[in-house]
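Fold this: Arginine biosynthesis bifunctional protein ArgJ, chloroplastic
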Amino acid sequence: MRCALLAMTAITGQSFRLAPAAPWRLKSTISELYVAPRRLLSCTSVRQGSVDKSKYILREDGANFPKGYKAAGVHCGIKKAGALDLALVTSTTSSPASAAACFTKNVFQAAPVQISRAVLLNKAGRARSLIVNSGCANAVTGKQGLEDAWTMSRKTDELLGGGSQETLVMSTGVIGQNLKMDKILASLPQLPGQLSDNYKGWSSASQAFMTTDTFPKLRTRSIQLGGQEVRFVGMDKGAGMIHPRMGPPGPPHATLLGLIATDAAVEPAALQTALTYAIDRSFNSISVDGDMSTNDTVVAFANGASGAKSIASESSSDFELFRNELTDFAVELAGLVVRDGEGATKFVKITVKVRVL
C-alpha cells in the first residue's frame, strides 16, 4: 500500500521539516506541491490497480485551447503495438514564440536537454516548435546521441518551413540506448499533415508523451489579462524516476516532461522568470522515488496570438497576474504526476494555516 502527499496551500512562507527519523518529509511554502516517498502514512488498504484514473483524462467538451498552436502525435515504432511515441507542437504565428525552459540539474544531462538549451541560448529565448519522442531517452549516448537530437530539431525545422534552430527536443524512455533514427526520420514527415488545433491533435500529442504513465496528462484554462481572454494548454508525463530539480537554461546543472503553451504575449526574459518561479513551486517539489532523471524538462511557449498587450516588465501588475496563474496551472499539472506516481493509491491534500503572533 503506497500513498502520495500533496500540500496545496500554506498561509506561512516559512519552511519546516519533520524529525530526521520520520519516514517521510514535508516542506511548506506558499502554493507549493509536495510529494512524499512511496511509503508515507498509514492508509486504509487498497488493492493495487483498484484506483480508476480515467476520471483524470481531459474531456473534449472541457477543453479550451490557446490560439495559434497545432499539435499531433503518431506512432513511429520506438514503442510496440502501435502506441503513439512521436509528438509535435508548433506555433503557427508568423514569428517564433517566446520560449523558456527549466532543465534537470542532473550532472549527466541527456542529449535533448543539451540541444534544447543550446537552441534557447542561440535564439535568445525564441522557438517555434517542440518535437518529442517516448520509449527512448537518448541519455548516456555520447556524441551519437547529440547528433541524433540535433537531427530531430533540424529535420523538424525543414518540414515546417521555418528558420533554423527553431525546434526544441525532448526524449523519454530507456536510458543508454540510441534512438531508432530510421524510424523517427521515416515518421517525421507524417506529423505536419496530422497537426490540428483541436482536441484530437492535443490529445494524440499528450499520449505520445507517455511511458509508464497510466493516463495522458492534458489540461487547459483561460484567464482575463489586460482585458483580453488568454488561454493556456499544458501537458506533462511522469510516473517513475521522479525527483526533479529543474532550473533555467545556462551552465550545466521514467523522466518528467512538460509543456505549457499560452497565447499571451510575454517577452522571453519575463517568461523565463515566470516559469522558473512556477516550477520551483510545483514540479520541483515532487518526489516519487527519489531518483532525479537525466531528461527532466518543462518548456513554456507564449506566442501572443490572443492579441493581449505584451508583458515585458517584471514589476507590472499584468506580469504578477500571469506569473501567479502560470504557477497555479503548473501546480495542477504537477498534481497529475503525483496522482499517477508508480504504486500510489492515495492523493492527500493538506492545507496548513499558521497565525504568526
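The CA atoms of residues 223 and 229 lie 6 Å apart. Residues 1-49, 250-254 have pLDDT under 50 and may be disordered.
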